[in-house]
Amino acid sequence: SLELSRKAAAVKPSSTLAITAKAKELRAQGKDVVGFGAGEPDFNTPENICDAAIQAIHDGFTKYTPASGTNELKEAVSRKFKSFNGLDYAPDQIVISNGGKHSLTNIFTALINPGDEVIIPAPFWLSYPEIVKLAGGVPVIVKTTKEQSYKLQAEDLKKAITDKTKAVVLNTPNNPTGMLYTEQELRAIADVVVESDIYVVADEMYENLVYGDQKHISIASFGKEIYDRTITCSGLAKSYAMTGWRIGYTGSSKEIAKMMSSVQSHQTSNPNSIAQRAAVEALNGPQDSVAKMHAEFDKRRQYMYQRICAMPYVSTIEPMGAFYVFVDVSDVLGKDYKGTKIEDTSKMAEILIEEYNVAVVPCADFGFADHIRLSYAISLEQIEKGLDRIETFLKELK
Ligand code: PLP
């Protein structure tokens, strides 16, 4: 038979989406499942944003827009970049896309020639290596350690750079770890990037979800040399509970923005016109609903962290951003559960879903096989119930 695309065949299906689907299936069978797999806020999109979309429909704002997004939205993003991130990106340096994933696809399409290497620190959000491969690049995984709070060290970056390296991916606040890079850490990485003349893909999708005293810092804000080598990527999905609306954006040099917008003009044309209007309201309108969601996430985060710290065989570092807790379960592996040996985190996840109705994300596909990810984008009540069940499971281990 005719051979299909090797590039497409090499792509793994998203395991997080599979876990969500499994939990849904069990729920449909009437099981009381607690799903810690969620990658999206459990809140509704704020009403003022929904109203702006409805108004856009009534206004007939239902036609093609410029392929890289409306000027109105680019101006709103430009203002946000300035006031929130301390970054100067003029509207013609901004490309609006169909979600953060699409922005990342555009970025790697614009940067990569066949065989170019992209350094991805592990643990990583599972889509990065797949998107890089689809763009013809070679993902180079650099493993971090728990002692480093799972953050890429400048010296390890330096060691991983070859003459094929095109870019490094930096995700802060981080999925799956919930960690934030400090200014000092980012400056050290920026120095290596400038010295080695590579690009940084700064994925700041969770920038609004930062807890405690530490602030979110954008690596491109440190000066012209690093600014010129950074593509900053973010979106509306996580900050404004707008996952289904599909709006992401990038700030980059004009040259890269122009390339991405040409690519996008052939592949998808503009992002949904109605969602673009809604995004303008999200960025320019009142931010009180964002503050409310933030406060609720923070409450859950603290509760979860304390509970997990008190459980046997597992440990975690206090997460300071996004809505995930990254749990080290290496001491669970090799233990016996009612006569079954727990060989890996998939087995652990299987027992948890089948015997305890709890869905968790094993992190092998995130480049960290002895950890699991728990999301707190579910109600405190659900979290409490789910953690009770996990604790019962852990107490069964021998
Ligand atoms: N970047 C990170 C780190 C993410 O976790 C996600 C979503 O899970 C995205 C980007 C993409 O977000 P979206 O495509 O929904 O805008």
**Number of DSSP helical runs:** 14
- Using the alpha-carbon principal axes, give the shape: globular
- Averaged pLDDT, please? 96
CATH third-level topology of the largest domain: Aspartate Aminotransferase, domain 2
Tell me the strand order in the biggest sheet.
2-8-7-6-5-3-4
- Helicity, as a percent range: 40-55%
Total domain count: 2
GO molecular function, one term: transaminase activity
EC number: 2.6.1.-
Domain Aminotransferase class I/classII large: 31-390
Family: Belongs to the class-I pyridoxal-phosphate-dependent aminotransferase family.
Description:
This protein is an alpha/beta fold and 398 residues long. The protein folds into two domains: 147 residues, Aspartate Aminotransferase, domain 1 (Alpha-Beta Complex), CATH 3.90.1150; 222 residues, Type I PLP-dependent aspartate aminotransferase-like (Major domain) (Aspartate Aminotransferase, domain 2). Helix 5 crosses helix 6, helix 5 packs across helix 10 and helix 12 packs parallel to helix 14. It is globular. The mean pLDDT is 96. Bound molecules: pyridoxal-5'-phosphate. The site of pyridoxal-5'-phosphate has 13 residues, from helix 5. InterPro entries: Aminotransferase_I/II_large, AspAT/PAT-like, NHTrfase_class1_PyrdxlP-BS, PyrdxlP-dep_Trfase, PyrdxlP-dep_Trfase_major, PyrdxlP-dep_Trfase_small.
Give a brief outline of the structure:
The protein is 42% helix and 15% strand.
Overview features:
single chain, 398 residues, alpha/beta, Aspartate Aminotransferase, domain 1, Aspartate Aminotransferase, domain 2, 2 domains, 7-stranded mixed sheet, 4-stranded antiparallel sheet, 14 helices, 15 strands, binds pyridoxal-5'-phosphate
